């Protein structure tokens, strides 16, 4: 019987496929391409039914050709999502338990990361009070070197006064994004991808669309201070949270540090 032939290897096979589909679904959903994922899955189901179950030779042969070409097209169209998927699989967050086992300075590393939280919070509070626009991106697992190169390299320690000066209205770098990586301000005046999500309220401007764009393309966290309203927003994992208080911003940043 089929049930008798089902073994532990088959169980692992199902679990691995389920995990792969889950990660692909999550990345597609965060990047706003979930409809494409559903369409691809529907096409695969039709292909399997036609070629395997119903043994429709002509239809199966045509769909086989489409599968070969379609795979190449998907790799070209979704190279960023594929790159992000591979980075997430190999990221340090997925293997943090091994790091904890062999790291002898884990508390020191967490303390070093925690030090940049409050300077950012204080800077955002000050910028919000004066209604000075700002866009700050915090790198996580996915490297942001390509985006850093679009701006001016700074590589400085994180402090409130420096952040305020960079986003001062007369500063030549205030229109672009600041990128924070490795507990340092790496660059400013950077250009980010813009989200074309139709669900974004029209009242939100280019900074919010850029924040959501980088949050959809990578796992980075983006902080926005609105120049019109002074409201603080955060984009992370394809979602945008608006009108945050300083306490909420501190909690979100502290959670990011804890997950690193």
Plain-language structure description:
Strands 2-4-3-1-5-6-7 form a seven-stranded mixed sheet. It is of the alpha+beta class. It is elongated and about 70 Å long. The longest helix is centred in the first third of the chain and has 23 residues, at 8-30. The protein is built from twelve helices and seven strands. It starts with a helix and ends with a helix. The chain folds into two domains: 2-90, no CATH class; 106-259, YojJ-like (1 (3-Layer(aba) Sandwich).
Keywords:
alpha+beta; YojJ-like (1; elongated; 7-stranded mixed β-sheet; 260 residues; 2 domains; 15% strand; 12 helices
In short:
This protein has two domains: 2-90, no CATH class; 106-259, DNA integrity scanning protein, DisA, N-terminal domain (YojJ-like (1), CATH 3.40.1700.
Spell out the blueprint of helices and strands:
Elements: H1 2-5, H2 8-30, H3 34-53, H4 57-77, H5 79-90, H6 96-102, H7 106-114, H8 117-129, E1 134-138, H9 145-148, E2 152-157, H10 160-166, E3 177-181, E4 184-190, H11 206-217, E5 221-225, E6 232-236, E7 239-244, H12 246-259
Parallel strand pairs: 1-3
Antiparallel strand pairs: 1-5, 2-4, 3-4, 5-6, 6-7
